[in-house]
Design goal:
The structure is a single chain. By secondary structure, the chain is α+β, with helices and mostly antiparallel strands. Helix content is about 35%, strand content about 25%. A hairpin with a 6-residue loop joins strand 1 and strand 2. The radius of gyration is 14 Å and the shape is globular.
Amino acid sequence: MAAPVKKVPLRKCTGCQEMKSKKEMLRILRTAEGEIIVDTSGRKNGRGAYVCRCMDCFEKAVKSKGLERALKVRVPEETYESLKKEIESIEER
């Protein structure tokens, strides 16, 4: 008897609109306090939006306001700058 096939959770990138596995994506999170952070664990409580691990997709998500729609909140420019720095540091790893 064959082992059951484990379902891989898929998420849609808010930048390029492609469906990819959850592990390939970065989760950007809006906490209950309204703070917007990068959730590296993917398990924190709050509303999440997913972006591919490349700067191009993040920039597309910013330009098209995909992050704002997914997080259902207006994102200030300073927050985009801090997210950009965090993503750059993650991309270098």
